[in-house]
Design brief:
By secondary structure, the chain is α/β, with parallel strands linked by helices. It has a single domain, classed as Rossmann fold (3-Layer(aba) Sandwich), CATH 3.40.50. The protein starts with 9 loop residues before the first strand and ends with a helix.
């Protein structure tokens, strides 16, 4: 049971893929918001969530090519470029009824903040240790059965990675490059990670850490979890009370669509020593920028 007050606003739940999107969404549900695409209000031919592959699918179905024009376009692609007319994004966001939220993976762009403010949206964003993100992302590409309702076509990059060794796969995800089979040219991971981390510069966006929100069940601690949830409540203009506090134990939910392990330390035991060393070396500056210990 969640907070029963009827909301008159909407929320964008933003993240880097595999950083705890559904963990943050579960927390948002505590405050009385409902997921857009699972509701009866979902509008066909709009994105189920604002992610690179889903946006690409919707644009393709509507015969809207990624325009080369620079006027009135926003790049909503966090893994690879996805240029979307501003008016199209505004329409997608307007389709959400009040008291609902939509998940997204959208890189930093000041123009998005303007759109969200004009439509009375709250913006919350979650980050995670970049090493854990990379490991989880690699696992997800080859184990996306649980996400078929949102990615029925699977992960296109899988075709490019299948013939690679684990070391080659990690290098490709970190360095970026062109996948001949998928036809996608992806950004390097440092650019991808910083494009989400930069939302911390936006005073209208609340940036939280996966490790602070997950609580004791996921290797964190309850004090940090409660503090983070209190910050979320304040950002959403919702008073904190005992009815909300009782729901904190429901935030950690292994039944969500893309849940894999959900522990802040699990990435350390997922790679061979050589690959772990390579990942740690690459991510060291990102960890320092995001406030993670190396």
């Amino acid at each position: 049971m969640s907070y029963e007050q009827i909301r008159t606003d909407r929320v964008l739940v933003n993240s880097l893929p595999k950083s705890g999107t559904h963990l943050l969404a579960k927390a948002i549900k505590i405050f009385g918001y409902h997921e857009y695409f699972t509701s009866s209000d979902y509008v066909n031919n709009t994105p189920k969530f604002l992610g690179s592959y889903e946006i690409r699918r919707v644009l393709k179905n509507q015969n809207i090519a990624n325009s080369k024009q620079e006027e009135d376009l926003l790049n909503l692609g966090i893994i690879f470029p996805n240029l979307v007319p501003k008016s199209k994004l505004e329409y997608w966001l307007q389709c959400l009824p009040k008291s609902q939220y939509i998940n997204g993976h959208i890189p930093y762009t000041p123009e998005l903040n303007q759109v969200l403010n004009s439509l009375n949206y709250h913006h919350v964003c979650i980050i995670r240790d970049p090493r854990a993100v990379t490991v989880s992302r690699l696992k997800f590409i080859f184990n996306s059965e649980s996400a078929k309702d949102i990615l029925p076509q699977g992960i296109p990059l899988r075709a490019d990675l299948e013939s690679m060794s684990t070391t080659e796969r990690i290098n490709f995800l970190l360095e970026g490059g062109h996948g001949e089979k998928s036809g996608l040219t992806i950004y390097n991971f440092a650019q991808i990670y910083r494009s989400i981390l930069d939302w911390g510069k936006d005073p209208n966006c609340l940036l939280v850490k996966f490790e602070d929100l997950i609580g004791e069940q996921g290797g964190g601690n309850s004090q940090k979890q409660t503090e983070t949830l209190r910050n979320l409540a304040a950002h959403l203009n919702i008073p904190w009370d005992e009815s909300i506090a009782r729901q904190t134990k429901n935030v950690y939910d292994p039944k969500t669509r893309t849940f894999r392990v959900g522990n802040i330390h699990s990435w350390k035991n997922s790679l061979e020593p050589e690959d772990l060393a390579r990942l740690t070396e690459y991510c060291e500056p990102l960890c320092q920028e995001a406030g993670y210990e190396v």
